[in-house]
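Re: [ENG-882] Designed sequences occasionally contain unexpected residues at chain ends

Forwarding the minimal case from QA. Structure tokens:
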């Protein structure tokens, strides 16, 4: 096992910036963070917030499989394990002097988000996607070798 994106089915690219989706009180937009990280900021007062977050996370996952983005993962070359909660950060507690929250994506998306995302990825890419049942919002992605 390794923590990389070197698998047989993830598109190879020279530069794959890490991506974080950040919920905050600041205006929405895209910027660069430390070390070239792509930061997608979403204002917490955005109308239909759950849909906006779902759309952005879907874009990040498609970008990961296209080879445009990198997110924290583990792979053995045959499959990739992705914990989507690591790509989402709730920074709104900072206004009250509290720390940012990770692993809280499930609080902001619908209950069907992970299964809908898995279906969309399988329809768009030649992959098989399994939902990891004992972890919130985690996927295992394998190359679909069926012809």
């Amino acid at each position: 096992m390794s923590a990389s994106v070197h698998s047989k089915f993830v598109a190879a690219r020279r530069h794959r910036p890490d991506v974080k989706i950040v919920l905050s009180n600041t205006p929405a937009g895209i910027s660069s963070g430390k070390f070239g990280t792509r930061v997608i900021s979403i204002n917490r007062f955005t109308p239909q917030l759950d849909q906006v977050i779902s759309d952005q996370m879907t874009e990040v996952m498609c970008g990961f499989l296209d080879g445009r983005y990198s997110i924290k993962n583990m792979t053995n070359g045959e499959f990739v394990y992705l914990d989507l909660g690591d790509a989402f950060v709730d920074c709104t507690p900072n206004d009250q002097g509290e720390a940012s929250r990770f692993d809280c994506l499930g609080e902001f998306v619908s209950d069907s988000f992970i299964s809908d995302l898995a279906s969309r990825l399988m329809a768009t890419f030649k992959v098989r996607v399994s939902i990891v049942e004992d972890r919130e919002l985690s996927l295992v992605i394998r190359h679909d070798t069926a012809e």
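QA comment: On inspection the terminal residues look reasonable. The longest strand covers residues 19-24. Proposing we downgrade this to a documentation issue.
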